Amino acid sequence: MTSNQRRPLIAGNWKMNLDLAGAKALVAGIQEAASRADGVETVIAPPFTSLAVVAQAVKGTKIRCASQNVHWAENGAFTGECAAASLKELGVESAIIGHSERRQHFGETDKSVHDRLGAALKAGLLPIVCIGESLDEREAQETWRVLETQMKGALEGFAPTDLSVLVIAYEPVWAIGTGKVATPAQAQEAHLFIRKKVASLYSEELATGLRILYGGSVKPDNVDELMSQPDVDGALVGGASLKADGFSRIIGFQVPAAS
After folding, report:
1. Catalytic site residues?
2. pTM greater than 0.85
């Protein structure tokens, strides 16, 4: 279970799904769960086409609106991208950066993740930086090397004070959209590695306060066990965030009391 110093965060990544009517209906369907989940931060990331509608719909609620990406430049000839200031103007409060699908399909690199993170921090957006290994990398025993390389690339040059609001999402890429899930023990092992690495790269204080989310086929029937792990501070939820009842159950996760 997450440290008392770390507020659990449940983030729903809608990816390229839902029209405007569906987006409004889903927000309405999860508001009660978010309002009841004391001490849990709820974030939803709709596609760009729904950002304005969702940001307005969550205004005054306990739900925060996130974008699925953010560009590093303040403006310019960057067709298809969106600047942090433009997102803020809509009421967006957070940004997912470096998701595995961005890395796989759209050429995202550790350097571009780093630059996007800088823009998000400068604008006051809550950054959720994604890292994780593929199945080939895990089978080749390269998980720790991949995670360290991605972290160093993304965080290089920032001061610990810059990163005080940072959230890292561990995505075992082999468990995204496949129905496979890292066991709670595997998730805990990776999260603990990330926390220890942040401590060695920066400071124990930053590592202790860092929220690390698990992202890989999180569902209502596995969230409790995942959230019972000491270094799992929340979840980045994909497909299960598109159904109000299922996502509401995830927001309202229950960690068994210690015996």
Report:
1. 99, 171
2. yes
